[in-house]
Design a protein that fits this description.
alpha+beta; four-stranded antiparallel sheet
């Protein structure tokens, strides 16, 4: 019986050796093994080669430092296009403009050479003659058959209120 145990042991070792050779050939053909195996007795075995021999492909990967990576892997990224660049040129501010006339024409009355114009400003009724200053801002410059001309005193700008044809 002793002899049959030795033969079984030798047959098992041959089968294991043969199976290990087939797995190594299959791993090399598939590209799974990055480096060739070296002898275990070699003193210059690197950690990477040892990890490949043990079958741990993840442990065999090189460790890279932040300087080798070159950028922050976990930085926030936006996939929106960058905003357009707006060039702001400081030019002179626009010239001030007089506000629109606050008056509405209501009617007129002529006595001799003097013409009186009746104007409405909101709920107020105003009586205006040539040369009058209304609201401390508008001077009545002229009254004609078709228009009343005002001078906006703070800016010295002329404004005209059309009154239509009087018959």
């Amino acid at each position: 019986m002793n002899r049959s145990l030795v033969i079984a042991l030798i047959a098992t070792l041959v089968a294991v050796w043969y199976a290990a050779g087939i797995e190594d050939d299959a791993g090399d053909a598939a590209g799974l093994v990055a480096e060739p195996r070296t002898s275990r007795s070699t003193a210059g075995t690197t950690a990477r080669t040892a990890a490949v021999e043990q079958g741990s492909a993840i442990a065999a990967l090189p460790v890279r430092t932040a300087a080798e990576v070159g950028h922050d892997l976990f930085a926030a990224h936006s996939f929106l296009p960058p905003p357009p660049k707006v060039s702001v040129q400081a030019g002179p501010p626009p010239a001030p403009v007089a506000p629109p006339l606050p008056f509405r024409y209501q009617g007129r009355m002529t006595e001799g050479n003097a013409t009186v114009v009746f104007l409405a400003q909101g709920e107020r009724m105003l009586v205006a003659r040539q040369g009058d200053l209304l609201n401390n801002q508008y001077r009545v410059e002229s009254v004609s058959a078709n228009a009343v001309t005002f001078m906006f005193e703070p800016l010295k700008q002329r404004q005209t209120l059309s009154i239509g044809n009087a018959k």
